[in-house]
Design a protein that fits this description.
The chain is of the alpha+beta class. The protein has one domain (3-65): 2-Layer Sandwich (Alpha-Beta Plaits), CATH 3.30.70.20. It is 23% helix and 24% strand. It has helices spanning 17-21, 46-55; strands at residues 3-7, 26-28, 34-36, 61-65. The radius of gyration is 11 Å and the shape is globular. The termini are close together. The structure holds iron/sulfur cluster. Iron/sulfur cluster is lined by residues 7, 12-18, 26, 28, 34, 56-58, 60-61.
Amino acid sequence: MAIKATIDWDKCEGNGVCARVAPEVFTVDEQGNSDVLLEEVPANLRANALLAMRQCPTQAITVTEE
Ligand code: SF4
């Protein structure tokens, strides 16, 4: 099962919460530009990715398992 994380940049406000919760998965630079670092989220980072999704204040993050 592949775990994928995406950010909706229309919703992201660049506050950096995701990068603090799951720095292996998400990055946010000083300008507030966020990005997903991993094409596929390894199983050991799944919980962190889901936590970041829940803690994102603007619900910009989607984590899917397919
Ligand atoms: S937590 Fe959400 S709003 Fe904040 S930088 Fe990450 S994706 Fe953007």
